[in-house]
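Narrative of activities, Objective 1.

The group set out to show that a structural description can be obtained from nothing but a protein's sequence at a throughput compatible with the screening campaign. Below is one input-output pair from the validation batch, recorded exactly as produced.
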Amino acid sequence: MNMKTASAAGTAVLPSGNDSGADIADWRPEDEKFWESTGKRIAYRNLWISVPSLLCGFAIWGMWGIITVQMLNLGFPFSQAELFTLTAISGLAGATMRIPASFLIRLAGGRNTIFLTTSMLLAPAIGTGIVLQHPEWPLWTFQLMALWSGVGGGNFASSMSNISGFFPKRLQGTALGLNAGLGNFGVTTMQIVIPLVMTMSVFGSLGGEPMVLVKSSGWIFGKIAAGTPTWIQNAGFTWLLSLVPLSLLCFFGMNNLKTVSPEIGGTIPAFLKIIWLYTLSFVPAGVGLYLYLPKPSGLGLLNMWVAMPLIIVSTLMVMKLTAFGAMKDNIAKQFAIFSNKHTWSLTVLYIVTFGSFIGFSMALPLAITIIFGISHVPDAAGIMQHTLKNPNAPSALTYAWIGPFVGAAVRPIGGWISDKVGGSIVTQIISAVMVAASAAVGYVMLLAYQSATPEQYFFLFMGLFVLLFTASGIGNGSTFRTIGVIFDRQQAGPVLGWTSAIAAYGAFIAPVVIGAQIKAGTPQNAMYGFAIFYALCLVLNWWFYLRAGAEIKNP
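Output recorded for this entry:
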């Protein structure tokens, strides 16, 4: 039988036939000699291509948090509650897309999956740029683009599952921390880049005409005065400049590990599996949102806490019932993770860390605009009103990027520390910090939402939120380290994907909860509720991984 020789990049000897130079059949990262001579170079090459691809995924997924602020500043004809639905929809779609994405690597291979899912980001980038040029279009057109942007959120699960397979267990915390942490910079990158590119005609006449700011806006260097021309459509179009070359880099520079993905079946069949599963995931997400969203966008029949589990369960059932051939067997094997109680405990714990990070990233810009951009004064009857513009308001676009930046920056540090001392002890410490910080933020929100000069509380508010982001970022790395220790190589990838999928619903929960409490006049209750949840998770982590009689001590 003809054999392919190892390539200069270190590709192992492979049988001829359906395999290609992108496929690696022999992969032994725990073998020190193999790792130093061959594995390390290949693993880090895949990691460094994965990072910017994941960064763009986060940027596309999270961009509605910034876009909605500018839509408000440009006078788009939508209420604050309607704008919060856009961030919530993109958050829910991204989380739901992570459910099938967590199974894609084994089914389709790492290189095939990362290339195609990165290329898919072009569609919401272009579509968002188009709809933003038409403020007169109905709300559902913007909601559709927010739903489509969920593709970027789904990419995290497949990316982390892929990188996990390349590295030995002793480096799992560091490798996954780098991939996730640097990838998470997509949130910060988006929050810095989008306000900047909206100030200029990046694409000339091809990019469309500008609109004029009705309210003052801002970017990282300060305010932008009302009346300034603004190209809001660049929030979508600009990502084309990075996505096209990145897609090519993924296709020609990444690898499929046959030890992790033994039945890929070729590149085209792999692409069809990915498209099939991603398409299926849009169905329960769309139906669930239609049942949840208030009229006229939906029927308004379901509470959020009913709609969300319904979408999760129906997505899993649709995947299981519609899979066919080898894909059906592979999905059945990966569903085995649900019989392990540690899958569920770590899912809850990851909600504390990543769920908080992405949820606050989505909700914070619009929350800043509404809480601190308005002077809260009582009317003649003594009833508090929240309509008078605050002339001293801080710009959300100037400050909102700081928290996600810090959270992403410390994520690799969390993985590194956890490699040294154990993941669960790090998770315990950061959970305690988040209980205190969340309660304190709630109290500051209470003071600001009752003040005619809310800006006096802003920097305390931001400082506490940065502390929350810091703790959640460190905890991201510690939770992934714990997963890498508890589960074997075959299950670690799907568990990483699953936990990240459920935690990503924080991007749906936070905007909905904070938005609802702001509408009710009690924004502090949202943060008090989060503090209670963090306290319960503190007990959960201690019970499973730190108490004297724990089944798995970590440490």
